Amino acid sequence: MFSAGEESLLHQAREIQDEELQRFCSRVSKLLQEDLGPATVDALQRLFLIISATKYVRRLEKTCVDLLQATLSLPTCSEQVQVLCAAILREMSPSDSLTLSCDHTQTPHQLSLVASVLLAQGDRREEVRRVSQHVFTVLESRQPEGPNLRPLLPVLSRVMGLAPGTLQEEDKSELEGSTLSVLSAASAGRQLLPQERLREVAFQYCKRLIEQSNRRALRKGDSDLQKACLVEAVRVLDVLCRQDPSFLYRSLSCLKALRGQLGQDPGSERALLPLAQFFLNHGAAAAVDSEAIYQHLFTRLPSERFYSPMLAFEVTRFCRNNLPLFDPQLLGLLKLSFPNLFKLLAWNSPPLTAEFVALLPALVDASTAVEMLHSLLDLPCLTAALDLHLRSSQTPSERPLWDPSLRTPGSLEAFRDPQLQPLFHYLLRTKASGSTERLVPLYQLLQPMAGCARVAQCAQAVPTLLQAFFSTVTQVADGALTNQLALLVLERSDALYHVPQYQAHVHRVLSSQFLALCKQKPSLVLELARELLELVGSVSNIQSRAGMFTCVVWAIGEYLSVTCDRRCTVELINKFFEALEALLFEVTQSRPSADLPWCPPQVVTVLMTTLTKLASRSQDLIPRVSLFLSKMRTLGQNPATSSVYREEDAEAIRTRATELRALLRMPSVAQFVLSPSAEVCQPRYHRDTNTALPLALRTVSRLVEREAGLLPG
Amino acid sequence: MVHAFLIHTLRTPNAEATGFCRVLYSCVFGAEKSPDDPRPHGAERDRLLRKEQILAVARQVESMCQLQQLASGRPSLDLQTQICDEPVPLHESPHGVFGLAAGDPFREPHTVVWLGVLSLGFALVLDAHDNLLLAESTLRLLARLLLDHLRLLTPGSSLLLRADHVEGVLSRFLPHGQLLFLNDQFVQALEKEFSASWPR
């Protein structure tokens, strides 16, 4: 619908030059003075477009601006022209060149138009207060047969929203009188103060609305209105009870009937949220057991209506906004319900990712952390499962909620396969189960769905959520949990649902988080020695997760030392050394029997550096390492290695090997550089020129240069 | 309270990034107090900021709409053939809601409710605690009124030079950004009054 013609129109409006614009302004001024008919309307429409089409200010002639303002107060002038004048002035705002005031307006409608312009000025000259005072004056002096003042009420509402204090400055009795007449509810009869009377009438009105809400509306459009009114009525009752707790008893009896009703009618769940809010705010005072409502909210709603974007957002927001109000029991229920809440996220990831990043810290708990991490990593899998769930449960006549362009008969069959039921059942569970299931069998079966846009969108959100998870969990995790999480990270890096690019992004996050865990708990490497040895024992692990592998090897080099954990023995260091040495051999030393396996150059250098670090701690190993490093000098210089490593990478490796070898010639320096004690890492150590590390490094590099000069080739 | 209402272009999800997301109409209902700014031209900077905030919202709505279209596998907007006089089934149009954090782009946190109809996006920027259900139905009502009254589905028709019609609709159905509870009968009466007093 947006055509080239419209694009060109916008372009013209933007590009109009100053001179031409001023000529046009003169024309508009002339029209405003002489004729207020169709030609004027046309010209004003064009002027509006010119002003609104650009974010930069357009200077209009003063005469023109004055006439636009004056037209707003003309007694006889079509609404169309006045609306356009107001719109133009508003589009120019905020502006210092306006001299508009409420004083000359003749009707409430004109006052409303002028107010719309004045309120758009950003309150630079107390426009809000001036408008509100004028409106109050008009309301106070209203005549029984005078003009309809309804147009002023929205202005009043806006003013109160912009500057709540203005109401305090005025005598409120007249204002409340007007509001009461708008409500036009039956009078309470007794003599009450205006404030009390307003509340009583409001209560009666809401009560009536709630009672009428279970009657069927005659027209479809009215049933939507009914639901909106119900939501609003409950919200107003909530406010009333907060202002005056004496309303609580009557409100509760009114809402009791509503509770039973909700949940029957499919459209009515939206009202569940303000109801839950009410009980959250007042339930304790009323000694009401609202457990059932929260169960409904956290358990039934997400699993039954996860596909409704509005409901999903509202439930998430409810949780987010009310966290400070949740008592420990409710908070516990919320935490246990995380698998269910994740359904909302899995299905509606673009709008809900930011909400969940904010909510996640409250859901993380030491007792469910492991299960939660698995769930986060399997979130795209959950999206696929929800899709299949909808496909298999929705009747054909209903409009499909899933992606009809994707045909997945194989996956659907798998979903219905009784043998796989336990796994799908686990994936779609509503509460944390306390145990974990390996979903690997599902990945293959759900592969056809990995190309589905919704699954891909969910996959894109996961890295962000993982960061949020880890930044919270590290604060509550004890030593044992840290170990579990680290193991999980290692294990899952090789077991992920294959959505395009998902693995790469997740690996990046998991690698950096693994390092963060090690940094937080340096003894991690030692405590997980068995698993880590297994990991570095196989070259296939390099290929499947190179980034992760690099981090693990680096962590071994950093943290496998007595300074990090006193239990570190020479035997252990030697064991790791041997495993790493064997691996390095496999990827760099060519043999006649097999081709060299693919290996990124970073892995080679980190292996070399780690071996050197280990040798600096167990100095018997130094000769072995030095020998190996000298063999590295020929890397890339024979056909076998040059086909696997590019020349620049090979050269970098050779240079590093030389540097490390040089370092090992001075074992105590090597130890200092490669395994610095904690004090050395303090900045102070580096600023003090007498003891500093830079001094040591400078010395070493000078030695290395000399060494290099002595070496042949 | 509604902070702003906007209408903007929606491009199809799979189109190459040709052209821009254009704001076709926007109305900010009463601006928050401008921060004290001693430098000159403060008013102009405020206006610039406002325009950019609205454009930022439009872009986000477009992006959310495109993502939803892709996720639900609906045919792209271009391919949808729409017979001009048939009423658009707005209940089935893509729609959604998302949050705007404080400072991004408005000072206060807000919520955006949006609706996509063919290649037009309609959006309401709300306070964080507004009645979402009411906002949703108001937005649908506004879209329906504008599509009908301006015959926006007829090829060649545009709202660029008919801002007064939009203003007329807003002044009756969302005056000063006030969400109204209107029953069907009342809406029809208002609509009739509007059609009568507004030449097409």
Structural features:
heterodimer, A: 713 residues, mainly alpha, 67% helix, 0% strand, B: 200 residues, alpha+beta, Beta-Lactamase, five-stranded antiparallel beta sheet, 4 helices, 37% helix
Structure description:
- The complex is a heterodimer of chains A (713) and B (200).
- Chain A has 713 residues and is mainly alpha-helical.
- Helices cover 67% and strands 0% of the residues of chain A.
- Chain A contains 38 helices and no strands.
- Chain A has helices spanning 4-15, 18-34, 38-52, 62-71, 79-91, 108-118, 127-140, 152-162, 172-183, 194-212, 220-243, 248-261, 272-286, 291-305, 309-322, 328-336, 338-347, 349-363, 369-377, 379-393, 409-416, 421-427, 440-445, 453-476, 479-492, 502-520, 524-527, 529-535, 540-544, 546-559, 570-588, 601-617, 622-631, 639-642, 647-664, 667-674, 683-687, 693-710.
- In chain A, helix 6 (108-118) packs antiparallel against helix 7.
- Chain A is extended, with a radius of gyration of 36 Å.
- The model of chain A is unreliable at 183-190 (pLDDT under 50).
- Chain B has 200 residues and is of the alpha+beta class.
- Chain B has a single domain, classed as Beta-Lactamase.
- In chain B, 37% of the residues lie in helices and 18% in strands.
- A five-stranded antiparallel β-sheet of chain B has the order 2-1-5-4-3, sandwiched between helices.
- In chain B, helix 3 (163-173) packs antiparallel against helix 4 (184-197).
- Chain B is globular, with a radius of gyration of 17 Å.
- The mean pLDDT of chain B is 87.
- Chains A and B meet through helix 1, helix 3, helix 5, helix 6 and helix 8 of A and strand 2, helix 1, strand 3, helix 2 and helix 3 of B.
